[in-house]
Amino acid sequence: MKPSAIQAALILSLLVSACSPPPAAPPAPRAVLVRTLGAAADAAQAQVYSGEVRARHESELSFRVGGKVLERKVDAGAQVQAGQLLARLDPQDARLSSSAAAAQVAAAEAEAGLARAEFKRSEALLQRNFISASALDLRRSALDAAEARLRQAQAQAASTANQQAYTELLADSAGVITDVSVDAGQVVAAGQRVLRLARPGEREVLVHVPESRLAGLVVDAPATVRLWMAPERSLSGRVREVSPSADRATRTYAVRVAIADADDLPLGATATVALADGGPAQLALPLAAVTQREGKATVWLVDGQQKVVPQTVEIASLREDAAILKTALPAGSRVVVAGVHRLIEGESVRPLEAGSAPALDVRR
Questions:
Q1: How far are the Cα atoms of 68, 115, 171, 182 from residue 83, in angstroms, in the given order?
Q2: Can you name the residues that pair with 187 across neighbouring β-strands?
Q3: What is the Cα–Cα distance from 203 to 262, expressed in whole angstroms?
């Protein structure tokens, strides 16, 4: 071939190569969310709930009679002393009843005085044989009946006086008003809650436990309490009471956790309670981390070469938010916790810790 032809062929090959697209870059490894298992951080024996700080002793205060609330002296959060006036009902009806009872007492006293005088005159007439003994017995019977009516009227008057006193609601002990249910102008029935009084002293946290987690929870079980306002402060507690019946609306069981040496905790504060069920430590993974592969429960692990490998596991139980595994996984294992149904065995991935900031983009 002539030199000119060779040069033309070289130039043509160079032009063709310049117009060709560059070779496609290999796809980037898929990003997956993982959770690195610690030695004890993922144990399922700790059940965590949110609750409210309450007083150990609380009283729901109410009027012993019904009526219209004339005034309320305190608001929620008020510090009160024993015997302090908290609220008052309109006393007009009670005053009228008391006046009517007093009038009945006066009438009964007049009847008893007359019967007593008649009996004395009859005794004098009997001594002079002007009347028979049976006539004296009739006077004695009339006197006894009059005195009985007097005692009845006096008892009724005392009860009516108490009813008038019941129009004032007094604090039965010192404490803090934690809840107010009525206001001035409202008509209430006898026994209807008006105020809730928290007495000073021991504090506790009220949490609600679902039925599926109630097994193994016993009185005096240890607990750890942390306040949302001070998460760095850890308090020791114990289960004081487990409700024997479920709430009608939520179908959960009320559990009260007593806190030692915590009388200064603010009432109504939100707290986190970690309860121990007393069973052996088992692994808790999110439900999204467990899938079915060839009819068996499987989780996906990321190995040292950043590749995913399936791991067959045995499930002990399922909770609302987690799967409890019987199979032990070694500490430091990286478990994929999202998108496990899209993984292929041996696939290269880019693991992102579930609690890290870049994991937010993966969740989107």
A1: 21, 44, 5, 20
A2: 68
A3: 6
Instruction: List beta partners, residue 291.
Output: 298
Instruction: Please check whether residues 217 and 334 belong to one and the same domain.
Output: no
Is-contact 266 219, C-beta < 8 A? no
For residue 94, how many other CB atoms are within 10 A of its CB? 20
Per-residue DSSP letter, 348: B
**Coil, helix or strand at residue 164:** helix
Block mean pLDDT (10 aa), the chain, length 364: 58 56 66 75 63 89 92 91 93 86 91 90 86 87 91 89 88 90 92 91 90 82 87 86 90 91 82 72 79 88 89 81 79 86 86 66 49
Residue 13, helix vs strand vs coil: helix
Q: Helix (H, G, I), strand (E, B), or coil: what is residue 50?
A: strand
297, part of any domain: yes
User: Are residues 168 and 73 in contact, defined by beta-carbon separation less than 8 angstroms?
Assistant: no
Nearest-angstrom CA–CA distance, 315 and 324: 6
Q: Are residues 80 and 192 in the same domain?
A: yes
Domain of residue 189: give its range.
58-89+168-197
- As a whole number of angstroms, the distance between CA 58 and CA 349 comes to 57
